[in-house]
Amino acid sequence: MASTGVLPFVRGIDLTKNDFKGNAFPDMIEEMSGLRWLRLSNTQLDSLPKHLAKLNKLEDLTIKNNSISTLGSFLPNLQALSKLNCRYNKITDSGVPAELFDLSELSVVDLSHNELTDVPPQLENAKSVLVLNLSHNQIEMIPNQLFINLTDLVFVDMSNNCLETLPPQMRRLTDLRTLILNNNPLIHAQLRQIPALSALQTLHMRNTQRSISNIPIGLEALTYLQDVDFSHNDLPRVPEPLYKLSSLKRLNLSNNQISELSLMIDVWVNLETLNLSRNNIKSLPMSLHKLASLKKLYVNVNQLDFEGIPASIGKLHNLEIFSAARNNLEMIPEGLCRCGKLKKLILNSNRLITLPDILHLLPELETLDVRDNPDLVMPPKPVELTKDLAFYNIDFSLNNQLQLAGAAPVESTGQTPPHKGDPVARKLRLRKRRDGQKESDKVLKGMRDVAKKKAETTNEEQKKEELKPKKWNENLERPHLNYSEIFDEDVGQIPDLTCWEMENFVPTQVEEALIGKFYEADCYIILKTFIDDTQSLNWKIWYWIGENASLDKKACAAIHAVNLRNLLGAECRTIREEMNDEDDDFLDMFPNGVSYIEGGRTASGFYTVEDVEYEQRLYRATGTKYVHLERVPVDAGSLDCRHVFLVDVGEKIYVWTGKLAKGVTRTKTRLIAEKINKNERKGKSEIISVAQKDELPDFWRAVNGPPKDMEVKISPITNVKVADPRLYKVELGKGYLNLPQVEIPNNRLVQTLLDSRCVYILDCITDIFVWIGKKSTRLIRAAALKLSQELHAMIKRPNFTTLSRCLQGTESQIFKTKFIGWDDVIPVDYTRTADSVIRRGADLKVIMERDKMKTDLSALFMPRQPMMSKEEADQLTQDWNEDLDGMESFVLEGKKFVRLPEEELGIFCSEDCYVFLCRYWVPLPEEEEDEDQEEEPPEDEYRCIVYFWQGRNASNMGWLTFTFSLQKKFESLFKDKLEVVRQFQQQENLKFLSHFKRKFVIREGSRKCKNDPTIKPLTEFYHLRANGSHIATRCVQLMKADASLLNSCGVYILMVPFDSQDLKGIVYVWVGSKADHADAVIGEEIAYLMYKDSYTIQMINEGEEPENFFWVGIGGKKPYDKNEDFMNYIRLFRCSNEKGYFTVSEKCADFCQDDLADDDVMILDNGENVFLWIGKKTSDVEIKLAFKSAQVYIQHLRNKQPERPRKLLLAMKYKENRRFTKCFHGWGQYKEVPT
């Protein structure tokens, strides 16, 4: 690229993070003859480039984070050099030229983080040095001569070396402000030189083997000392001299053996930061409140308890951070919560039981860390704070939800519910005695009253405003116009002449030297600022119209002239001046007269119809949350099966997706292509999505031919590390240019880094962008364009790199993708349909403000349904069986239904399907007898119900076979008197269950396997249990025979098979010590029903189990539950939004594992814990709303059942623990839907 002639005017450039490995350092640096400062950090240099030898005016050189071992012989020839920063390199003693320190202007020397073993010998000659940093080396001694000559030093850092002592000549450094000696083995030297440093402000002696005996004597004489660090030493107490330093602002005494502080700390009235972490402190002094300037207090890892924190700590009105992690705190004083500026409160890993109620009223609290405090009960928030809190625009406060459910709200006591155990009561009494309960109540009540009064006042004012009638002109809303993006803030504040030219619909300020030189095809605004007779600023505004100007420039000149008048508040009129027809007052403003220039300089805002030649480009798209487009060579070899690629050929934009690429990346890349077409191509480009192996010939031509074998594999180009972006800010002075880099946090560009008054160069190696702010001047724009060309040629790049110009507000989509969150994918609410958007609008915020989200949590506040009494269950069973006229049973064998053997009635297999034809008689209503009528009484009516029962592991083919065969026959026989009821395993209705009279058995597997004599039987283990009613009693086979599944309140059946033809096995009916006698009888009858011949059946009570077969068959003795209290509390709720709004509904008491819906969230209460069960297909919205609902439910139970506090636990599908699964009868593997 041709030279632009701008390099000699560059005074400073930052080339940090460029790769200059090998011989890649640019030769063009030699042309920057006026260079004063140069940054070469992180540039992979292993030696100092010789090009620097010609930079005779270089004053500041930074070469941090490289691999340089020697500074070279030419560096001392740079006579103007004053600052040298060489930290984080590999410089050795021989690599530092002795002549370097003869430079008369050298004032800053930074050789830290290198491999020096000695102080450079000639360093003593550098008498002008003010800043000396030799930290992180292996220096063992400082020569005595060093500080004889270097008496002007203000900063010395010798930390992380091997120093054992300091030279006595250091006392000559009377101007020294900062001395850092951290991590040096200074042994027991008392360092008497330090008190002589009268101007010292910062003293760091961390890990220097300091003790009380070797603390420098006379330290109190340093009256300017503000920052002291004596951490990581062996101090048993705070050194006495420190108590006399009233100027201290920062004090670090962490990692010592300090056990107490003196009351003399009241001297530290200016102290802002105090770090006492990792000591043995048991209490803080009562005079702590006198540190009026204290902002940060760290007391982590000590032995502080509630009594160790003075109640007067609340007088530290400037305290912002209080960190007391890993102590013995059971509570904190209420006074701590009166520190109104507190932002961070760190209390993790303590023994906290509760916190003061007033904690919620801290106005600026940002971080509250109370992790690892297992017994902590957080105080409830005051009503004044919770009533307006919303989540997804839903108020989840307990009182609001109770009100919506029609229940009475809970009366707030303003106090934390008492926790069981004496420690809380003791601490509450202690706090009352020490802090004064009456005083705290007054403060808390006062703050609440203020908040309440403020809310009432606001409501009254709003009502008054609503009631007050408005005039007709007050109803007219004046649109808010922001001129700050168009005109500078200080425009019209200095008497002068200012001019703007119209460019792309907006005014751009003209340089002072060019005012009065008008282009014939342009329009201008001229502002004259002057001081009138009243000594006030006044203005006159003209807009000048060129003879050949386009319509948009004429209109914008008139419009923005009025805007300028409104911005200034001027009372003058805007005056129109046309070319060749200007009045004398206008011409008199220009001392050199007005000159016309043919043509136009600025661009029109109108679209121009012309054929544009687009450059063929190929971009690789990476990322899911934020999609990043990286330019790659336009070649088929650049394609990679793991990524998405965007091919831009102008009239067509291809989005190619590899077979291993992520769908999110593909979707977002397609949206980027849509935006390119809409914003940059006027919708004329065609967007084509191409999947791997579906490419058409046009696509292969766009990427210069297909790859070999027509197979796209992993490309080696993809493995090349993407260079970090570099953002240069172009600075223009009087006769010079600076090109510093803008610091990019975490290497992630954000839009806020750009200033509309500046011009930036964004270097992404394969793409270079010049971003021009709206308020930037024309000269700096021109300089930036030339600098970008030089930067393009200076750095080694691929030959397909392009240079683009971006005006603020018209940036290309590729440029925007380099920034995080700039014009990202439009947020879409997938829960809304297109009709809903048309009907209610697209702005979700407006919708949420207009109407609240509907929710129904009433099920959470309903009382638990009590278990049906035995008498009622027996009566229902009797009534339903009396109505039953007959029942025929069938089972599916192969592809047809056959009659079920009588001996198998009531025994169901999980892989089979059954059909039960039940005929019920329906008695007619009794009519009064008529003596005259002698007709025969009519027959009773009947109806038939066909129950189709499907096992958990049975396929749906049984249902299809039934509907097309047996159901057809039943319909032809019974006509309209037939009803078909389909039922699934463990989800049967009570009427169906009543026909089996509690003898309802569910076995694993199929009948075919059970009745096959060739299949060797395995151990079988059954659990008899009733859920919600005695009618819903089932005997379900468990997945495995394990002793941990036993319960003293239950009845279990265990079959242990024998390898014998005469005796097939032994059957134990195990009766728990707390089991119901009726259940034991039912268990014995079921055992005889299932195992009739060739089995020995034994009834055994808990504690009388035989060792030989029972415990062996059940896998050995294991601990098991002794009670079943959870059965009195278990409740299962379903959280769903299938109705269009969020609802919580309760499952009946007879629930099972299959009631856990995979696309919903379930809440399970077992009396001790509340589990939040999350399915695999649950949406994030449902999870968040269900979490808030569970919190409301626990808060409600805290008031209803204070004796049984619940904890909220998470249960993910497939990862449930025993406390969760025991609530479900017969827990086993999930029923999976075949794919």
Automatic annotation (TrEMBL):
> Region Disordered: what ranges?
408-471
Q: Which named protein is this?
A: Gelsolin-like domain-containing protein
Q: Where is the composition biased (Basic residues)?
A: 426-435
Q: Name one GO molecular function term.
A: actin filament binding
Domain named Gelsolin-like: residues = 505-587, 630-700, 744-815, 1145-1203
Q: Which keywords appear in this protein's UniProt record, sorted alphabetically?
A: Leucine-rich repeat, Repeat
**Where is this chain compositionally biased, Basic and acidic residues type?**
436-471
Give the domain of life. Answer: Eukaryota
Species name: Patella caerulea (Rayed Mediterranean limpet)
Query: Is Repeat a UniProt keyword of this protein?
Result: yes
Q: Which GO terms describe its cellular component?
A: actin cytoskeleton; cytoplasm; nucleus
Segments passing through the bilayer: none
Entry keyword annotation includes Protein transport:
no
Query: What SUPFAM superfamilies does the record point to?
Result: Actin depolymerizing proteins, L domain-like
Q: Which GO terms describe its biological process?
A: actin filament severing; actin polymerization or depolymerization; barbed-end actin filament capping; myofibril assembly
